[in-house]
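Much of what follows relies on a compact textual record of a protein's fold. The record below shows the convention in full:
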Amino acid sequence: MRGTDVRVLQDFLTKAGVKTKVDGQYGPATTSNVKRWERKSKLPVDGKVPKTDASTLRMQVAQGTAGTQSIPAPAPTANATLGADGKAIAPVGAPPEVVAVIAAANEIVGKPYKYGGGHGDWEDSGYDCSGSESYALHGADLVSRPLNSSEFMSWGEPGEGQWITSYAHGGHSFLVVAGLRFDTGYNDSSSSGPKWSEKMRPTDGFTVRHPEGL
């Protein structure tokens, strides 16, 4: 078992206090962490996540503390928030693809800028702008291979998306996901490399695209 749903599960486990690597594979490590979460939540311990357990986990993540299940449903278009660690927190009610993109992007936050980084291999020591964008989108299987900034000019559908928007021209590309910008430049600090920011950047000259349905 692997893919977008597993990435979402792994991301939610971490947010619920059981740190789990987001790799999209339901292997022994993830199974063990599911059992830890089940014990913590006083649920039957079997390493599996049926719909009832998934609902409990989602509510825990929404509230920010484990064990409480009473929480109102937020608006489906609520913005993501930026944590103190520089990583994004997906809004409750976001589509699984959005949660997976955010989880994947969080994996490379803090990596250095590296020209061509992320284009030869998904896992790299650093990432450039389009390599960072590709890595994030690949987390939800929205790209099958790394794209360069020029290729992002024709990726997906034209115009802004409700949840995910790509901005690209021949020399640069970046994403806006649930209201946060994921970019390697124009950030709030002097360092470069993939980061989330609440600050937007000028978009004149950029081609605007989005994944279908998002």
